[in-house]
Amino acid sequence: QITLKESGPTLVKPTQTLTLTCTFSGFSLTTTGVGVGWIRQPPGKALEWLALIYWDDDKRYSPSLKSRLTITKDTSKNQVVLTVTNMDPVDTGTYYCAHIVISYYYYMDVWGKGTTVTVSS
Amino acid sequence: EIVLTQSPGTLSLSPGERATLSCRASQSVSSSYLVWYQQKPGQAPRLLIYGASSRATGIPDRFSGSGSGTDFTLTISRLEPEDFAVYYCQEYATSPLITFGQGTRLEIK
After folding, report:
1. Which of A46, A58, A85, A108 has the highest CB neighbour count under 10 A?
2. Which one of A2, A36, A47, A52 makes the best mutation probe of the B interface by having the most chain B beta carbons within 10 Å?
3. What are phi and psi of B75, to 5 degrees?
4. Nearest Cα residue in chain A from B102
5. Structure confidence by residue, pLDDT tens digits, B35-88
């Protein structure tokens, strides 16, 4: 059974750097065709993809946020870490990580429950 | 950059009725990369449909997906009370790699 859990601070100040950790089980990020992605959702708004990392360490970022994002993985700990620099109140929302399947089809089949981040001074 | 437009924004129906949700892409996309999710309040999104028409594990057969090119549809044949939620379409592989629609809220009439 695949599970993912997001963790990190619930409150950050403007201009600070946010560091979120996705701890997963039930799969390995060394398996071909597997990835982990980060998605966020401002309160009452739609989902927005942020970044993803594949089994081969290929990393992709949302073009609109690329300069502020860094994604890394630690396969020995079954963790993926996302950092977001220069946080702003508009970055407030729920941040999810998700398991990605890459085969003939591409999709995110299992999501964590999300972690809520508020940006405020 | 691809844009996914979902319609209607809100759909008001009664249990037992048929729901038809639309997702239109600003450019042609591969059906292999078109996905539908369901999200209930306070919960993470749940995978419903991948590859435009393949149901995910455990998804009831009242949910079906169809379409190709730029026009895709999620159909719920007979609404159950637990189906009232927000539905998102998503495309994977065209710049900016992963794009979500703005969502359709399915509410009880």
Report:
1. A108
2. A47
3. -120, 135
4. A46
5. 999 999 999 999 999 999 999 999 999 999 999 999 999 999 999 999 999 999
